[in-house]
Design a protein that fits this description.
Elements: E1 3-14, H1 16-26, E2 33-40, E3 43-50, H2 53-59, E4 66-75, E5 90-91, E6 97-105, H3 108-117, H4 127-140, H5 145-155, E7 158-166, E8 172-177, E9 182-186, E10 189-193, E11 205-207, E12 213-217, E13 222-226, E14 232-233, E15 238-239, H6 244-248, H7 255-261, H8 263-275, H9 278-289, E16 293-297, H10 299-316, E17 321-324, H11 325-331, E18 341-346, H12 352-363, E19 367-372, H13 378-382, E20 386-388, H14 401-418, H15 428-450, E21 455-460, H16 465-479, E22 482-487, E23 504-508, H17 514-525, E24 530-536, H18 539-544, E25 547-551, H19 556-577
Parallel strand pairs: 16-17, 16-18, 18-19, 19-20, 21-22, 21-23, 23-24, 24-25
Antiparallel strand pairs: 1-4, 1-10, 2-3, 2-4, 5-6, 6-7, 7-8, 8-12, 9-10, 9-11, 11-15, 12-13, 13-14
Bound molecules: 5-amino-5-deoxy-1-O-phosphono-D-mannitol.
Length: 595
């Protein structure tokens, strides 16, 4: 996820070191390119490239950059490959404005075409440049700067935060829609950033602009105006007292909890991004023509692949083979060829097991595409192209937000394969919010009840089967208890003998599978099990199970996705109750680069 930082001071000074340090504080968000611009005496000094902050800033001697205003940006590629020209900040056609954004402008492609037709110089594919030209368009038409920004805001669709400055000026301007942005007020300077941690070492006096507000930053003051009518908005600065660690966790005690709660927002951003992605079209076309389709991954990403194969069959009538990456090599690689398409799924894009399978597939001439969170990772470079998961950094070892965005991507692709209107998916983020609000307290109380058990099962069927596997993995990973995920109908074929009094069994039930799940519930209940069901409200479930965790009404595929949220929270609470750190479970690593 990109990060921006802007700084305004009351005298011309060496801004390079301030910008480098700010960029370093933004690195935790993840990035592939770095840039910096300083503005002074009517000139703009812009330096940028692909690479780490340390390497790029040294190569281009950022430390020497001087001015009274500066902007730095870390880019996490979505529109346009990681390259120098696509790196940010960007200048306008004649080079007297410079700006940078984080987030995604989803009508980037259409706007770029309009700007080119209007005679502007568009140098990159990047949507940050689109933000600059969006302002330039109205300056060219004779509008004052603030009015040009107001009109540009109306043209730019998506979730983003943007900062821009003019060479002949003493200010910076910033505005946001959907993404985070914080303004800082210090002694002799003001600053603006994508997040609080990056400005805290400079000042603890802040203002939090809202969507639809434009902030003008001078060295000694800021002004907030409404995008709608340009009127001045009174906003008293606040003092931040939390520690840096608390701020980095966004006020949550753990990254895992923060990342669980980020899911609706990253889902929203992903759906916007998929709508504007030309690669989706290409991938769908290729998958439609493929002889066989393989979804290849490990761990949590494999569970998303499994969910994807259920969605493809249920919605598009298209079989897809989900494969654990190491098993792809002996079981499928000998049989695949150039008529087949493989989709390799990985949060990190560095999992060795996945890269080994990719190599084996490529040797056989299979067409290989990726789905990864870390842009610039090996997987993103080694595949024909890789769809981004758009989650920003996932710091906690247990994957949460990357799993739900993987599943949403598969659902989106299945809709496209089926020719179904993907706008039906737009309410997923809201349903996720409702699920978390409605189930939070009940899940915590169930966690207390079953926490003494070292063995349990999590069962699902159809679209909820991958969710049951994922819930079980999460429970194992951070509680260190044994939890087996299984197809509900398989339980009677052996594991049933494990059931004793109060033995916890969790069922994830799809709306159409209630009768089948009720059989499963009773099978174990008569033998003493404690039965917990995650499902949409249904009186038949209340009549049969000990606990029903109620999901909001949706459909079979979305309901399955929602079912993972209470399971993530259950694992989290049990991990905390056991005194473990869910972010960094013992023996595990976030990125597994070994065989
Ligand atoms: O980065 P990847 O998605 O390729 O990682 C695969 C697994 O190692 C990973 O999903 C692991 O299972 C998670 N930590 C589980 O939460």
């Amino acid at each position: 996820m990109c990060g921006i930082f802007g700084y305004v001071t009351n005298k011309e000074e060496k801004l390079g070191p301030i910008l480098i340090e700010a960029a370093q504080r933004l690195t935790y968000r993840g990035y592939d390119s770095v840039g910096a611009a300083t503005l002074r005496d009517g000139t703009i000094d812009l330096r940028k490239d692909v690479g780490k902050v340390e390497a790029v800033s040294e190569k281009y001697r950022f430390a020497e950059m001087t001015g009274s205003r500066g902007i730095t940006q870390l880019r996490w590629a979505t529109f346009g490959e990681p390259s120098q020209v696509n790196s940010q900040p960007h200048i306008d056609s004649d080079g007297d404005m410079v700006g940078a954004h984080n987030g995604n402008v989803v009508n980037n492609v259409e706007l770029r075409e309009q700007f080119i037709a209007e005679g502007m110089t568009v140098r990159s594919q990047n949507d940050g440049e689109t933000c600059v030209h969006a302002v330039e368009r109205y300056i060219n038409r004779g509008y004052q700067f603030i009015d040009a920004i107001r009109l540009a805001y109306g043209d730019l669709q998506g979730d983003y935060a943007f900062v821009i400055g003019r060479a002949n000026d003493d200010k910076l301007y910033a505005f946001k829609k959907g993404s985070g942005m914080v303004v800082g007020l210090g002694e002799g300077f003001t600053c603006v950033s994508s997040d609080l941690p990056s400005i805290l070492p400079l000042t603890r006096t802040i203002i939090r602009p809202q969507d639809g507000e434009i902030v003008t930053l001078w060295a000694d003051r800021v002004e907030v105006r409404s995008v709608k009518d340009g009127r001045l908005i009174e906003r008293a600065p606040e003092q931040v007292s939390e520690s840096m660690d608390a701020v980095q966790k966004g006020g949550y005690p753990h990254f895992m909890l923060k990342e669980i709660h980020e899911q609706p927002q990253v889902a929203r951003e992903l759906l916007h991004l998929l709508d504007g992605s030309p690669e989706v079209e290409q991938l769908v076309d290729r998958m439609k023509r493929a002889r066989h389709l393989y979804f290849i991954a490990c761990g949590t990403s494999y569970h998303a692949a499994l969910a994807g194969s259920v969605y493809f069959a249920q919605l598009a009538g298209r079989p897809a083979i989900p494969v654990l990456a190491p098993q792809f090599i002996p079981q499928y690689a000998p049989a695949v060829g150039h008529e087949d398409v493989g989709l390799f799924i990985s949060q990190s894009g560095e999992t060795k097991d996945v890269l080994n399978a990719l190599e084996a597939a490529e040797k056989r001439g299979m067409e290989c595409y990726g789905l990864a969170n870390v842009i610039g990772s090996t997987l993103t470079k080694a595949t024909s192209f890789c769809l981004p998961l758009c989650c920003g950094y996932e710091i906690s070892v247990p994957a949460t937000k990357t799993f739900t965005n993987q599943v949403i991507t598969f659902l989106y692709l299945a809709y496209r394969m089926a020719g179904q209107d993907t706008r039906e998916l737009d309410h997923i983020p809201e349903l996720m919010e409702q699920t978390m609000d409605a189930t939070g307290a009940q899940v915590e109380s169930i966690a207390k009840d079953i926490n003494s058990w070292e063995d349990m099962y999590c069962l699902g069927y159809g679209a909820t089967y991958p969710i049951a596997l994922e819930g079980a993995l999460k429970l194992k990973e951070i509680t260190y208890a044994h939890c087996e995920g299984m197809l509900s109908t398989e339980f009677k074929h052996g594991p049933l003998s494990a059931v004793s009094r109060d033995f916890p069994i969790i069922f994830v039930a799809g709306p159409k599978d209630v009768p089948l799940i009720i059989s499963g519930i009773n099978e174990v209940k008569v033998r003493g099990a404690r039965t917990i069901v995650i499902a949409e409200d249904d009186p038949r479930l209340h009549a049969n199970a000990d606990d029903v965790i109620v999901l909001p009404k949706s459909d079979a595929q979305i309901s399955a996705l929602l079912g993972v949220l209470p399971l993530q929270m259950l694992s989290y609470h049990m991990s905390i109750m056991r005194g473990f750190d869910p972010d960094f479970p013992r023996n595990l690593s976030k990125t597994l680069t070994v065989d």
